[in-house]
Amino acid sequence: MKDPEFDLIRAIAGGDETAFEQLVRRYQNPVMTFVYRYVGDRHLAQDLTQEVFLRIFQAAPRFRPRAKVSGWVFKIAYNLAVNELKRRKHMDDFHAEISAGDRDVLGRLLTNHRSEARNMEMEEQLTAALGEIPENQRAALLLRVDERLSYAEIGKVLDVSIASVESLIFRARRRLKRLVMASPGFAIE
Amino acid sequence: MKCRQARMKISAYMDHELDAASSLRLESHLRGCVKCREALDDFQELDDMVRGLPGIDLGPDFAAHMLKRVSETAALGKVQPQGRLSLFERLSKIVDDFVDLVDSARSPSTGTLDEFDDFPPLSMGHIYFRLMDLPARG
Asked: Which residues in chain A are contacts of B37 at CB distance < 8 A?
């Protein structure tokens, strides 16, 4: 069955600005939220989200009707986020930052969120815990839980088999459960 | 089914990604195992919590901002829909590439081609090494 959003992509490929605006409105918040939870930095996530839509505009003529539009959009977002994290990991200051260990990552995430006046401590802890899950597990879990993509669709985004997706999501949930249960003042009831 | 196997399948089960036979075996196990039912509840609750995290709203102006960015960058020639080139565009590109190649053969070279400067300009040998040199110059 053809994805109804394919017509939107075809219109964008033809240079239809209204179609592009419509697609941006549809995906701007899900993409921003996904990228933010993946990279853990709001400003970086916003820059990457803009880059995602520029790439979509550029790549629209190459979209294959067999693919699902949402999967294609998140694949572009995921690839950009992965590359940016890889690039940052090569920077010396980032090396120094992560060498202090996972707890510093947790602390940094918590600090970021507090500075943005996040109101719920549990939200902060859950977001921080998500930040501690290995990147590919985190991406798979977010695409499943937030975007409700199937394992096959997630496999296409991450370029892995369905069996790998199953394993990634299982390990993500198991790790997340351990992390949140170990957080102070946090318990799954 | 043992608890260890059941725990590994719970995640796929709640995502409706388990085949029918495996689902039946797991459900049979869950009916008689409190600990595994708790594990399923925990995973489901975690999912609810993650889903309940506030999303980020980029606001109503973001789409218009993106449209402006696309127009600006397109005007600069940086962003244009790419992919389906017409036959004429493809032929033009080939001609342009060839013209660039010939032009570059006429200009002094400072690349690795200098090592092979015994080939006369525009000879097959010269063109071959010029082509081999293209990625390095890019």
From this structure: none
- Residues with Cβ within 8 Å of residue A82, at least 6 apart in sequence: A135, A139
Distances (CA, A) of A65 to A4, A31, A58, B13: 10, 21, 16, 30
Measured CA to CA, the distance from residue B107 to residue B99 in angstroms comes to 13
Question: What's the predicted TM-score (pTM) here?
Answer: 0.69
* C-alpha to C-alpha distance for A76 and A55, rounded to whole angstroms: 8
Structure token digits, residue B68: 């402006």
The minimal CB distance from A60 to the residues B49, B53, B81 is found for B81
- State the ipTM, two decimals: 0.75
Is B54 in Cβ contact with A42 (below 8 Å)?
no
Write out pLDDT tens, residues B39-58.
999 999 999 989 988 888 99
Give the mutation candidate from B14, B44, B58, B71 for the A interface (greatest A CB count, under 10 A): B58
Range A15-44 average pLDDT: 92
